Amino acid sequence: MEGMAASGTPAPVLPARRARANALAMAQIMTGGCQCRRIRYRVRIDDDQAYLCHCHYCRRATGGVSIAFKNVKQSDVAWEEAEPDWYQSSPIAHRPFCSTCGTPLGFAFLDGENMDLTVGSFDDPGYFRPVSNFSIETMLDAWSDTSHLPGKRLEDHAPVADRWMKSLGKLPD
Fold first, then answer.
1. How many Cβ atoms sit within 10 Å of the Cβ of residue 158?
2. 72-95: pLDDT as tens digits
3. Of the candidates 105, 107, 127, 108, the residue with the CA atom closest to the CA atom of residue 37
4. Which SS3 state, helix, strand or coil, does residue 118 take?
5. How far is the C-alpha of 160 from the C-alpha of 15, rounded, in Å?
6. What tens digit of pLDDT does each residue of 91-114 get?
7. Cα separation of 52 and 55, whole Å?
8. Is residue 104 within 8 Å of residue 34, measured between CB atoms?
9. 3-state helix/strand/coil string of 103-117
10. 5 against 38, higher pLDDT
11. Main-chain dihedrals φ then ψ at residue 31, nearest 5 degrees
12. Which residues contact 10 (CB under 8 A, 6 or more apart)?
């Protein structure tokens, strides 16, 4: 019987088999999209690992000091509702985005099998954890650890909270 040793006790699980079983157990379909919801996607996710890119192109494309990406196979991404717009941001790559609301959705080499989706465009971005930094030669060191800075909750900032309450009758999710 498979999985049983000759003695009738469970056979030891080999590390490679255990790693494969863990990867299969983590595989799931996740969803995301742009702010206005014109562009939606479904994608197979095999693990919770993501990374931060600090290159000049990503900073300019997103307006941020870095961008969090999840690398996926392009064949695992299903665009729903509408296809994204694409901007060729360099001689070697292009980026999906929504031309209605401006949300950056990712990055892909022109000749690649994989692509990156922006972690912030996932419906559940908290699932992911950063495991590496890319293009560290252009990293803005002052922004690499902001955990020591004071923080404020949205509901504690009356000018913004009041605007949301007047507009929606509640604070945003």
1. 9
2. 999 999 999 899 999 999 999 999
3. 105
4. strand
5. 52
6. 999 999 999 999 999 999 999 999
7. 9
8. no
9. CECEEEECCCCEEEE
10. 38
11. -120, 160
12. 3, 4
Using a 10 angstrom Cβ sphere, with 0-12 exposed, 13-18 middle and 19 or more buried, the burial of residue 110 is exposed
Residue 53, helix vs strand vs coil: strand
Give all domains of the chain, ordered by start, each with its CATH number.
26-143 (2.170.150.70)
Token pair for 66: 């870095």
Residue 107: what pLDDT?
97
Q: How far is CA 144 from CA 2, 66, 67, 71, in A?
A: 49, 9, 12, 21
Size of the chain in residues: 173
Structure token pair of residue 103: 């949300």
User: Could you tell me the strand order of the sheet in which 77-80 lies?
Assistant: 28-33, 40-45, 77-80
